[in-house]
Request: fold
Amino acid sequence: MKYNFKQIEKKWQKIWESKSLDWKAKDFGKNKIYILDMFPYPSGDGLHIGHIEGYTGSDILSRYFRMRGYNVLHPMGWDAFGLPAENYALKMKKNPMTFVPKNIENFKKQLKSIGFSFDWTHEINTTEPEYYKWTQWMFLKMFNLGLAYESEAPINFCPSCKTGLAREEVINGRCDRCKSETEIRYLKQWHLKITKYSDRLLDDLKELNWPESIKELQRNWVGKSAGYEIDFQLEDKSNKIKVFTTRVDTLYGVTFLVLAPEHPLSSKIARGDYYYITDKYLRNILSKSERDRMMSREITGVFTGNYAIHPMTGRRIPIWISEYVLHQYGTGAIMGVPAHDKRDYDFATKFHLPIEKVVQPENTFEKFSGENSVSVYEGFGKLKDSDEFSGLLSEDAIEQIGQKLIEKKFAQKNVYYKLRDWIFSRQRYWGEPIPIIKCQKCGNVPVQEKDLPVKLPKITNFRPTGTGESPLKKLKNWVNTKCPKCKCPAERETNTMPQWAGSCWYYLRFTDPSNKKEFANLSKLKYWLPVDVYIGGAEHAVLHLLYARFWHKVLYDLKLVPTKEPFFKLVNQGMILGEDNEKMSKSRGNVVSPDNIIKNFGADSLRMYEMFMGPFDSAKPWMTDGIKGIYRFLNNAFTLANKITRTHKHQIEEDKELLVALNKTIKKVGEDIENYKFNTAISQMMELIDLMRKKLGEKKLDKKHFETFLKLLFPFAPHITSEIWEQLGHNTLLDKENFPEYNKKYLINEEKIIIAQINGKRRLDLTFPAETPFEEIKTTIQKHPKIKAHLKGKRIKKTIFAGDKIINFVTN
Ligand code: ANZ
Ligand code: ZN
Reply:
């Protein structure tokens, strides 16, 4: 019989479909495990290779833990609101409401064609009113807590079109539509007060079993820094400039101050002849889009003709304006210390400002290279030329200079965060309507709970208006309503939520997806939370993963969820690159289509290959030869099975070599799955199958051992293993089998016995795992009380390690 994967896979998918309840999570039970994938946006292109990598990993885990008797929640759903769908809709001139369900059908079909064991009874879709009703409900909770607020944010405005523009719509300071010069105006936007949670978002990272790199990205994003705010008086005493610094130890090295262009003083501070150039500079900078400003490597700036007074030395310090100082951070003004800050250094070099060293590296090598050269030294060190603080180390100087400034009322301590409140309104169609009613008398009034969801109407013209209003604004019937409070005529908020809203809490809904009364029942949440394993790409590090943590904490404070954090363990799958080692992209033509692979090699080969390519969390290139190798392996297993069915009647002696290899494999595959090391589990199984083929030739392969192997392989390649299982005469499902247990007695050669001698005399035998390095064996033995006693008062002259068996301490 041939390995006809097409037939086999279809057959088993049908069987699973009819018995899919086997994958259904029970509501309660002893051991639960919640294994979650980052749910996809169901694009028209269908599944790509990267989805399949993560989903195969989670499928292996789910099948494995089911075989271990766990109650597994492994759901799937659709994150279908947002810009990708809307832009596609605009291109196709079709309402997303009509094609999103079709995309979902297609995605689902594809997922099933790969044999993923999702619990489809828990499926959810963020764009269904029954779902987004709760997204809106949660928004209102935040609104009532003051965590959702409307406030003005600076945006570009076109005076002739009378509209606010997105930053991207401003090209070289002009409106992209009518080419008029734009100006900065403040427009109202909804914000979520994520900054209130800054400290908790940082502190609670400690509790999470996440990749350190992702935690670090979140830490940097929240960006907490403690420092001092120092006041610099203007020379004419008309005002003060407050700067924020984390390096008050460098205070004596200040040679200039810089204001952000948006700083309130920037437009007022210029003196004399500098008036004109300052004004010109500001107009030029403020009309650039943020992106242009960030992209520009050029150092720009302008001297204002004005001076401030150094709080310690009384020196005159020139005041500049430059875009490298950000308005949104700290006080929007800095003290320039070019000798010790690279950005200040570049600025000073360009504008020929003095550079004064006040911190010396302690390390002599750095001192040598730093002393007379023009380099910047950004590290801590010893102060010089700093009055009474000279000679102090930076750490102490920060305390003491800070203290002195505080005493003189020139400074105060402060902590700043890089994190900003989350701008939550979009002037776009395809999102959850923000459930607020705007009343002339009562202001922003929440829609009443009984009136949720505020359904997104189906409209034909959903093109963004460009007026800064959502396209919903035109729908008078929908917009006009009554104020829930005073019953006067009022209007609905027409902005929608951003695409990240629905994914902030979907993992909660999965625990109780059809609940009509609550977003999820608390007892179910208590049982299932936190998500034990969350698998997905690292690109969400500071978007989805931060938003969801914030949202979760709000619900936690409301006692609506039982845990402080949503996702206990996070596993990032590595990116799968094209054969050319580059990111897969249509334009490069290096995209691998899963459908083609399934057609040519089968879903089991695809699953196995994606797991075999390399470490789960590393980036790795696709190789067609690689999948051929996997295919051969599965084919070998299949042919082997055919032979076993014919020969299994033979009475077979227990074969020690095989038993050792088998037990070793059981142990390794189980441990590797639990550690997401799918690739090494597969190599181990490949070794085993080679041995089994050999043993079969020697008529030493017992059928039951081959069946054990099938159970190990099942989570990886569920179709072929199920088929073989049936061929071997079973009418049960492999799903229902227990994962094999290994027998320790066969693992003995995984350990080694070390004989410890002192001056050639045997004193102790100790057992170590086979791979224990020499150094570790040596120290362990030396610390053993018996050996210690014998060595008392003696000095080891030499340690001899012989044949990986004997360690001999020679003393005098
Ligand atoms: C003087 C100084 C000397 C600084 C030195 C650094 C090194 P973090 O750690 O990121 O918080 N800074 C403050 N506000 C800024 C703004 N709005 N735009 C650009 N830079 C700003 O960085 C704090 C440091 O970043 C501050 O400390 C300030 O430069 C700069 F040897 O002050 B420092
Ligand atoms: Zn315009």
